[in-house]
Amino acid sequence: MDLWIEILVAAFLVISGVFGLVGSFGLIKLRGTMQRLHAPTKATTLGVGGVLIASMIYFTFVRGGVSFHELLITLFLFLTAPITANFIAKSYLAKHVTPDTLPETKGEYGWAVYDDPPGGDTSQEPHLGKDR
Amino acid sequence: MIITYALTFAIGCYCLGLLFNLWRIARGPTTADRILALDTMVINLIAILVLYGISRSTQIYYEAAMLVAMVGFVSTVAYSRFILRGDIIE
Questions:
Q1: Among A75, B44, B75, B88, whose CB has the most other CB atoms within 10 angstroms?
Q2: ipTM
Q3: Distance, in angstroms, between B14 CA and closest chain A CA?
């Protein structure tokens, strides 16, 4: 294998390892729960993206064919990391933060964690539901 | 040869990250911390699986990494939703 390809793969591996370590170290270093949400969802996701890029380059030049399917994992992780962070933040808000300490939402409805969705919840109570 | 050293370094980094996550799971004051640490463990595990696949020079572990990614996302959402609403599927 070409030396430059090896150097490129090794550089991606080292950079992604450092990013993954920083993400996991921020999980124990930062003080508050909402601060701790930042480290793994950004740094660790970027680290895994670097590992997958290194894997793509390596298998492209070892096998000779183009290896694209690692991009599926990257796409999946980059799509699901914000959703996961949003859910974890919502579960924290619901348990540990009261609504009067939060700022106003400038909208017609309040925070979605505390208020029911607009027009949604009446159908769950049988005596208020619409007749069919 | 360079790749071998870089692989050892990267696998060491992610294994150390797994230990940090375990510390946060054991220590974590709130449930949100524990969910977050478990989710980070899943992401680190995906990276370790892909790195192991590179070190063995095989692509078998790609499917395992994909499955772990999907199951990890679903379990994280289910756990947070159970904390949030007291039920998973309403």
A1: B44
A2: 0.88
A3: 6
